User: Fold these one by one.
Assistant:
Number 1:
Amino acid sequence: MEAAQDRKEREYSRVDTFVSLQVSPVPPEARESLRSCSSHELLGVAFPPLPDIEDQALAQCLQIINAKLDAVLSSLSLQQEGVRAQQVSPVNISGSGLRFTSSEPLIVGELLKLKLVLPTHPDTVFQIYGHVVRSEPSTCEGNNVSVNFTVIDEDIRAKIVKFVFEKQREQLRNKRRQ
């Protein structure tokens, strides 16, 4: 009954997937001016959107070049942040939080910095902060940890929600094919 009530109260859809994830506690002295950010902000670059171009062939070429540059910037931000997209972890993610397995016990109420790479095209790195709301021993190894995002820009939340819906659609398509 409690699990059913918990599901009714959820604001965002959830999905099980694999992401690259780095988790670190936030020391008390660093908690004053926390801000979430994404790949381009981590690199310190922001670009205006492409202007409308009447020549369709030129516009298409510029979009291709722009996509390639986005991939290069994403790769650079992954390297700069020390996040490796090849090391992935199983997670359950939604617009409001994340559940993952930690090798170290984490304390309920502890504030964490989460560096998360969503497997999109190009990969996107997000730096988000959240509080541990649940930490229980896992049936396998480590601890199952649930984190509620508490410092997250609404644009980043929207990108995570979009990722969750796309992943759910992909899982439904794969299920129908079986």
Number 2:
Amino acid sequence: MGGAPVRPRRLMRALPPRLRVRRGFTLIELLIVVAIVGVLATAATLRFASATDHRRLEAAAERVLRDFDHARRAAVAQSAGVRITFDPPHARYRIEGVSGLEQRAGLYVARLGADPYTVEIVSADFGGGPVLEYSGFGIPSGNGTVVLRRNGRTVTVRVDDLTGIAEIIP
């Protein structure tokens, strides 16, 4: 057990180059990894934002669809007319003759321009105007469409004048 101690650096130099072990990463290697992670994070963020926009637009269209159905059923249940009036500049609509969860009796207001939807109503046309009325038999005053938009994407909700049933047209 005598003799001079073996120093690690001398031992490393004595090994062939393929057997030498490095202790860390170079600055260039670290910068490359950071750049790759940055590119992947940016791509994931953009994809997530696009999916969120799409989901908000779909949810708003589903809300309009369900409210058309709710108004039609309420008109039949009450045997009285129920009117839906759209206000595109303010991205909202109201249903008269039906109460909402948070509104006073007889008036239901849906604000699509606010959270969680934040969409705009491009147009609402039911035979020349933004008003649709269901009779006490659930028959609409005419057919028509509501066009919703968010960040360049649009979706249309159409009401059939014979059945009064609404459908979403992507």
Number 3:
Amino acid sequence: MENRRSYGKKADQALSLWVKLARAYETVRHRSVEDIRTYGLTQSQFGVLEALGHLGTLTPGELSKKQLSSCGTITVVLDNLETEGLVLRKRSGSDRRVTYVSLTAKGRKLFDNSFHRHAAFIGGVIGVLTDAEQHDLGRLLRKLGRTQEESFSTNQPNNQRRKETE
């Protein structure tokens, strides 16, 4: 017998959707990480190679924003990729505070050999949805994400709102 507490129809529906979204994300992420490991990389390392492979030379700060990771995390990831000979860090000639990160020939080869296969793998995972379902889901997730980003940047932080209601 289920003992579920109700928070109102809209809140219950939103919570149910949140749980489904979180579970789907974790399942797909787990499958993706398993595939990425076959290339001898972590998810963060693969993400950095992907960004550099598609966008070209970037600064660590730009990589941090692209990967939604802290600068400290990106530094550790870059240290490990540099040790493996996959990326090269080079100081700017005009501003010593700026460092640029690019793929080495070895890093480019790994990116070229792995990304196409990983994209096909993800296509298979997501392929349980029809093309129309993928389009609709993508549109809805983009709408949800963008409205929350806008709301977050224009409103008070959540912890401030909580304090006011206590």
